[in-house]
Design goal:
This protein is of the alpha/beta class. It has 6 helices and 9 strands; from the N terminus they run H-E-E-H-E-H-E-H-E-H-E-E-E-E-H. Helix 1 packs parallel to helix 3.
Length: 210
Amino acid sequence: MKKNIKRYIQTNILPYILQLFVRLIYFTNRKKFHYTTNIQNDKPIIVAMWHGDLLMQPLNYRAFRPNGDVKVIVSEHRDGETIRKIVEYLGVGALSGSSTRGGAKAMIGAIKALKNSTDVAITPDGPKGPIYSIADGIVVISQKTNTPVVPFSSIPSSYWQFRSWDKFIVPKPFGTIDFYVGEPICLQNLDMEDAKQIIKTKMMENQLTK
């Protein structure tokens, strides 16, 4: 009974409260948007964001593509279910799977989504790191669908930082958040290691790394 109550709270009540908190942070901060103009609005993209910087990215995406359709790859465990419900409240769909669990299903789902003109969001160092690493999956998905990888990031003027492997960032209210959407990265005809290095370099350009 207690286990069922705990699960209900974690997968139903907690996501609703947390998405309200994310909205509170967003709306109480001054926002500066630094967006590329070199992306075709009628073509799908792969949104790349570091695991420690994912909190504000659903709203960053919504500001960049107000009418866009996007799905994020979420790990198949209980924490993943909580994350899935939070992002759904924020207007983002979910694909089950990760590099450590359900990877093949996630890759197939991502490829199908992109071919149906749905954007796909990936944390290439998630769900367990190491921090700022690039898993093979994002390269494979990009090359199989000929879809560019686009770095998304945010830098808050003040924040809390967890002592977790990903150094997870939570912006504080009433500051300023700089939101970034970088230039699209084409990975066609690159080998795996070169492609991963290019993604990492581009993703680190506008990233808080303290």
